[in-house]
Amino acid sequence: MQMREHAIKAPVVRTYDRGLLAVMLLLIAFGSLMIYSSTSVITPVLARRNISEFYYFKRHIFTMAIGFLVLFFSYRINPAMLKKAAVPLLIFSFVLLLMVFLPYIGVTAGGARRWIRLWPTTFQPSELVKLSMVIFLARYLSMPDYNPESFTSFVRPLLVMAAFQVVFLKQPDFGSTMSLAFLTFAMLFISGMRMRYIASVLVLLIPVVYKLVMEPYRLRRITSFLDPWKDSLGSGFQLVQSFISLGSGGITGLGLGESKQKLAFLPASHTDFIFCLVGEELGLVGATVLIALFVFLFIRGISISNRSRDKFVCYLSYGLTLMVSLQALINFAVVTGLVPTKGLPLPFLSYGGSALLANMAAIGLLLRISRGDEELPEHENRAANVRRVARRNIYGGKGVQA
Fold it and tell me: Residue 389 above 60 pLDDT?
């Protein structure tokens, strides 16, 4: 006699955040279009180097292909495994950061030594450092013995941050130094750390920041930021050209490919200042759409964090979202003259493989977290597996025999 089959509740089908993936794809497509637009004109400098109009675009497409492999790999990583690998990954990124000083391995450009030579291109370890630091902080803040009321718990991650910043300043890379500080203090603030601890350290850092700012080339950047027109052909040249580029676009822009500033007037038009090109060719409308995409990415990332029930996963998703969003915010502030010039690329848009790979890895991790299937307690996972097997047996025609 066949027993009556009991109704079995189907397990919830969990999938990744399609909205987050869509906005990333739109940003990458946007960036590819603007990179080609900014590098398709052969300037005298490029002509002397015998570079074709597709040189940068083809290299960017190659990096994108690797980036999608990185995204897929990071999407497949179990958050529990990532938590265990947090400290080894941080140590590995520190070793890579030190390798920029090795002869024949480190690469110098623009007076800075920030890259290591990897065939067929170079890699900037500071981008991996930021990603590794986010993962490490998520693990540290989720530890049972972490106490936001304890000054010791506050100081430990700052010592780790300071070790990386010393190497950054040796390169020198002031932009990455500040980015790492913003990320660290933001995540400590989110964890509920006492504000008096954060405020006291910030006050103590004022003499250090003053000393760093008084370096001649950094001081010129600040003075040119305050009044770029005073030395419009010298230290203020890049910012003045940025204003001209943004202002020339008007409401709807000059048209795709019609930028005048990319004709060797605006330095770094395909890297750090690519947002200016968006404003010039696509106008206020295009710039607003781009900013809206980053706002949507931020909202989706925070939404994923708020749905997380595991502390490590929650802090990790917050950190990854801040890593991308803060860098975009700083880039927007730099090109519009709100803060002094820093060498920070615009995520997913600027030409540069290291930043693109790190940001795509961050999105891959966020997509995995958005599924939510790794956050269920162990007994809930076992129950879900039992229901899934029983449901498959029923639909497969395997009745329970008495």
Answer: no
